[in-house]
Specification:
348 residues, alpha/beta, 2 domains
Length: 348
């Protein structure tokens, strides 16, 4: 019953089957293969954008850091939420890949930025003593498991343009957000002002594959050189691209996300009904953040459940559901939590 992360899973069958098939024969290296070309066209159709440019990479950290390197000079500022993955969990990669740009972290409920917080933070343009405003980065779904609606993204896109900033979206769980919102990918990205999307796939059924998607092709001019210089130009590029091709075919990406979201909703609703258990954030995608009584938390671990403690402070827990989360595991967790709470209520 491993709910520690959606990174604990393997690849889904559609992706593995496609990898095995693509492994046969020869193909030109460094992205000059048929799979990479087809992924580009598939993404253009999916996002209803005939001129977007997409680049497969192997990790989400590389995707974010390389994208930001194209948007931000070394003396630039990237505005992000203080809980953002680029700020908390990427070991300075954005700063390294940009050559020293500064991440300016901002507060916000549900780990989401607002135009007001952004407007209050932006400053110093033209002043040689300050980093120069360059980009804003948002995470979809957020680090609290909540989603930006198209209107919320559009408001941030408008604010970003008003301040001369590029808008980057870290879409590590983009599929979960789109599945939750029930909107087209275009509505919540370029139509709402997003310049660059890092489309996550590894957490949602791929082995190791992400795509950096530039909706404004002119912003991608330096990307191939950043990617090569940092060691992220994979020679056997077909083995990245084929994962994305299979992932995007026949709505595999959305079916996987819908299952993960449904499991999280069931888990969240069940935990919320256990006496003494509180949810910290609405369950909108595939993550559940809770505050459980210590006896309940201990009982879950004793029953074999794996989850993270302390994500939002002492005494809090994070549970993440995935494309292959077993519904029976969810029920076992809820039964163990309920039994532990009942035992606690009977204690004198």
């Amino acid at each position: 019953m491993n709910f520690a992360s959606d990174n604990v899973t393997g690849a889904c069958p559609a992706v593995l089957d496609a990898l095995i098939a693509a492994n046969a024969g020869a193909a030109m290296p460094y992205g000059n293969d048929a799979w990479t070309a087809r992924v580009q066209q598939r993404l253009r159709a999916l996002f209803a954008h005939d001129s977007l440019l997409a680049f497969p990479v192997a990790t989400g950290t590389a995707a974010n850091a390389l994208a930001l390197a194209c948007l931000t000079p070394p003396w630039g500022a990237v505005y992000c939420h203080r809980e953002a993955h680029i700020n908390v969990d990427e070991c300075g990669a954005p700063e390294a890949f940009t050559g020293g740009a500064k991440l300016v972290s901002l507060p916000g409920e549900q780990a989401k930025l607002t135009p007001k917080a952004l407007a209050e933070a932006v400053g110093g343009r033209g002043v040689v003593h300050h980093v120069q405003p360059a980009a804003v980065s948002i995470t979809q779904a957020s680090e609290a498991g909540c989603v930006y609606t198209p209107d919320e993204v559009a408001a941030l896109g408008e604010a970003a343009r008003a301040h001369g900033l590029h808008l980057h979206m870290d879409g590590a769980r983009f599929a979960n957000a789109v599945a939750a919102l029930g909107v087209s990918p275009a509505e919540v990205t370029w139509k709402a002002g997003v310049d660059v999307l890092c489309l996550g796939a590894t957490k949602n059924g791929c082995l190791a594959a992400e795509a950096v998607i530039f909706f404004r092709p002119e912003l991608a001019e330096s990307f191939p050189f950043h990617r090569k210089r940092t060691g992220h130009l994979v020679s056997k590029g077909r083995l990245l691209a084929v994962q994305l091709e299979a992932y995007l075919a026949d709505e595999v990406w959305l079916d996987n996300a819908r299952h993960a979201n449904a499991m999280a909703r069931r888990l969240g609703e069940g935990l919320a009904s256990v006496p003494g258990c509180d949810l910290l954030h609405p369950v909108e995608a595939n993550e559940v953040f809770a505050r459980l009584p210590q006896p309940v938390s201990e009982a879950l671990r004793a029953a074999g459940a794996v989850f993270y403690d302390g994500h939002f402070g002492a005494g809090t827990q994070r549970f993440v559901c995935a494309w292959n989360t077993d519904p029976d595991d969810v029920e076992r967790v809820l039964n163990a939590a309920g039994a532990a709470a009942a035992d606690g209520a009977r204690d004198p």
